[in-house]
Amino acid sequence: MLDRSIGEFSRFIVIALGTTIFGFSTGHWWLALCAGLSVYLFWLLWQQRQFDRWLANGRRGPAPTSFGVWGDISDDFYRLQRRHRKEKQKLHSMLRRVQDSTSALREGIVALEDEGTLAWWNPAAGQMLRLQTDDAGQPLINFVRDPRFVEHMYQRMQGQLDRYQEPITLPAPGDDSRILQMEVTRFGQDEALVIVRDVTRLHNLEQMRRDFVANVSHELRTPLTVIAGYLETLQASGQAPKNWDRPLGQMSEQTARMTSLVNDLLLLARLETSERDSGRDRVSVRELMERVAGEARSLSADRHEISVHCEEDCILTGDAGELHSAFANLAFNAVKYSPDGGPIELRWKADAAGGHYSVKDAGIGIDPMHIPRLTERFYRVDAGRSRESGGTGLGLAIVKHVLLRHNANMSVASVPGRGSTFTLNFPPQKLTLASSA
Asked: Of 111, 220, 263, 333, whose CB is crowded by the most CB atoms within 10 A?
């Protein structure tokens, strides 16, 4: 830049000296100097005008040929133009490769712009959502009208916490026989990607499993009730031979265990197949905790110190039976897996984040590697100990589905050999203070 300025200044000095010398030879040096400088200024302005016209026409073609400082500027613009063209071609090539690769995916991908409008989608998404080429620029919710997805999309687009922790599963638009799984991921300022998967086969298999478990459990209930009745009659009558006492006792014990397992399976099947949203019962947390503590003390048979700490009584909105099941399962697990004499604390507190029910024990604890799988059906940290305690392996799976229906979640803190703390976290909208109810 400095060299260009010096060059242009030198050119100006040469023109001024030349016209002055020419003027002295003719006797009109002042007029000659003014004429020379005017021609030089006109020349600069003409080059500037040419350059401005080239810019106004969208910089089509090479920059205009000029001399001096404007020639240098034109050369710089020409080099920048070539570099920009190469980078643009590289970006177009990269975009084509991305589009070609996403076109080969079985999952659908939809790119959204401002306000959730359609910007681009791959063929798989177009097929699953029945999108046409001229649908670009329209809101996605014009094609996917499920209220759960609409809420999920707007909360993700606005960067808010989403109460749907998992992808939304819903029927395909215009085809209820196909089941889609959709998840929105935000990026940039107001842009998002929607991942669409066809999970029809998995959904049908899962439905078959649920129906099978529910039907088998229901069919087992009647014969188990009959067996339990006859066993109770034999034990109460006193007419059975003495050497039958032990077999009858074991049969009664195993029948009760099977009945408990069947009841848990039926409850789990009902939770899975019923509507996602919970009931509208108004449950006093303090009364629920006292009732659960009484049941836990009966199960413990005074082998544990069970205490209740309710910092502030609240009304929890939901299904009373399901909430009792969730609260009780945690307390009963603490009794089953705590050594005799160990303290068990049932605690409730409410804050800005919502309500928190926790059960703390001083039991065997849980290795961190097991914690992510605790809510799986029949998963046992210690299979032998679980069978001895009479557990079915379904308690935490039931808790998980109850929490899903109440928009809540569970956290676990545990140290092997030092006990565990299970905490159920309920959102603020599920709570009201008992004093203001």
From this structure: 333
Closest CA to 172 of 201, 151, 204, 143: 143
Concatenate the DSSP letters of all residues of 163-219 into one string: S--S-EEEEETTEEEEEEEEEEEEETTTEEEEEEEE-HHHHHHHHHHHHHHHHHHHH
Tell me the C-alpha distance between 186 and 184, whole Å. Answer: 7
Report the C-alpha gap between 199 and 202 in whole angstroms: 5
Structural domain total, the chain = 4
Domain enclosing residue 241, as ranges: 203-273
For residues 88 and 436, give the distance between their C-alpha atoms in angstroms, rounded to a whole number. Answer: 64
Exposure class string for 174-212: b at 16+ Cβ within 10 A, else e: eeeeebbbbbbebeeeeebebbbbbbbeebeeeeeeeee
Interior angle at CA 63, CA 60 and CA 68, nearest 5 = 165
Check whether residue 132 and residue 81 sit in a common domain. Answer: no
The token pair at 41 is 């200024």
Q: Where are the alpha helices (DSSP H) in 27-67?
A: 29-56
Q: Which helix (H) or strand (E) holds 71?
A: helix 68-103
161 and 182 belong to one structural domain: yes
273, 296, 321 - which closes a domain: 273
Taking each helix axis from N to C end, the angle separating 395-405 and 245-273, rounded to the nearest 10 degrees, works out to 20
Cα(355)–Cα(349) distance, integer angstroms: 6
Same domain as 426, residue 339: yes
> CA 45, 46, 48: angle at the middle one, nearest 5?
60
Regarding whether 12 and 112 lie in a shared domain, the answer is no
Q: Are residues 332 and 419 in the same domain?
A: yes
Q: What sign does the CA torsion over 210, 213, 217, 219 have?
A: positive
> How many alpha carbons lie under 13 Å from residue 415 in its C-beta half-sphere?
2
- Mean pLDDT over 421-434 rounds to 85
Q: Are 110 and 144 in the same domain?
A: yes
**What are the angstrom distances between the C-alpha of 125 and each of 59, 106, 110, 327, 419?**
39, 9, 7, 42, 49
What pLDDT digit, counting tens, does each position of 25-82 carry? Answer: 665 556 666 766 676 667 666 766 766 776 667 656 555 665 555 566 666 666 776 7
Residue 1 pLDDT > 50, yes or no?
no
Task: Please write the tens of the pLDDT for every residue from 336-361.
Answer: 888 888 888 999 998 888 899 999 98
**Is the four-CA dihedral 227, 229, 230, 234 of positive or negative sign?**
positive
Residue 17 sits at the vertex; the CA angle it makes with 12 and 19, to the nearest 5 degrees, is 95
- Encoding tokens for residue 206? 């899962």
